[in-house]
Design goal:
Strand content: 15-25%
Largest sheet: 5 strands, parallel
Distance between the termini: 11 Å
Number of strands: 8
Order of helices and strands: EHEHHHEHEHEEEHEH
Low-confidence stretches: none
Structural class: alpha/beta
Helix content: 40-55%
Strand order of the largest sheet: 2-3-1-4-8
Shape: globular
Number of helices: 8
């Protein structure tokens, strides 16, 4: 089983990808983590990525696909995987298809994590972390047991990431819709797209993903 999770920031792709890795043995290939890993390994590809990022430029589609290809090559030849964060554009999707074809592989399933943008804004913009131990909380959905006191270290100072502000989140959602919306039609035409309600409780989303996998492997 080789699949892609499509969804905007806050849709739960990372959470569900880790679930699929743990329960179904699908190797979680996160674009962000692959970039960080390549840079830390200081390979030729990693150094090229580091130079681009350090210069403030965006990593090209070609390099992203090369990065994913390199990681797939390091997996067991028959290893199943779930892609999180790639493809993000139609160009990446087309390049990914070519790359997998050259390895005699193909995608079995693409899952669209359908969301409500207003709820996503509330979900992300309410995230805070303890400034001392980095424990994560939410101003509405996951408050400390005692107001303004960290459950783990007792710290009383909390912070919010700059890019978790409502303005920043809405901007990221707009970019996602503009760049990624064409992928929905692309994979619908391939006959491998399925949509699920990513706003449901985490356990229900996991259950629905499991049912989709069961239907495609039976």
């Amino acid at each position: 089983m080789r699949l892609v999770l499509l969804g905007p920031p806050g849709s739960g792709k990372g959470t569900q990808a880790k679930f699929l890795e743990k329960v179904y043995g699908l190797k979680h290939l996160s674009t962000g983590e692959l970039l960080r890993l390549a840079i830390s390994e200081k390979t030729k590809l990693g150094n090229a990525v580091a130079d681009i990022i350090n210069s403030g430029q965006l990593v090209s589609d070609d390099l992203i696909i090369e990065l994913v290809s390199d990681r797939i090559d390091k997996l067991d030849g028959k290893a199943a995987f779930v892609l999180d964060g790639c493809p993000r554009t139609k160009g990446q999707a087309e390049a990914l298809e070519v790359m997998l074809s050259e390895k005699s592989k193909n995608l079995d399933l693409v899952v669209q994590m359908a969301v409500d943008n207003d709820q996503i804004v509330k979900r992300i913009s309410g995230r805070i972390n303890c400034a001392n131990c980095a424990a994560s909380y939410h101003t509405e959905f996951k408050k400390p047991k005692i107001d303004n006191v960290c459950d783990f270290c007792g710290g009383d100072s909390f912070e919010r990431r700059a890019d978790d502000s409502e303005v920043s989140v809405r901007r990221r959602l707009d970019v996602y819709e503009r760049e990624t919306a064409p992928l929905v039609q692309f994979y619908e035409n391939k006959g491998i797209l399925q949509a699920i309600d990513a706003m449901a409780p985490v356990g229900e989303v996991s259950k629905e993903l499991g049912a989709l996998i069961a239907n495609h492997t039976s």
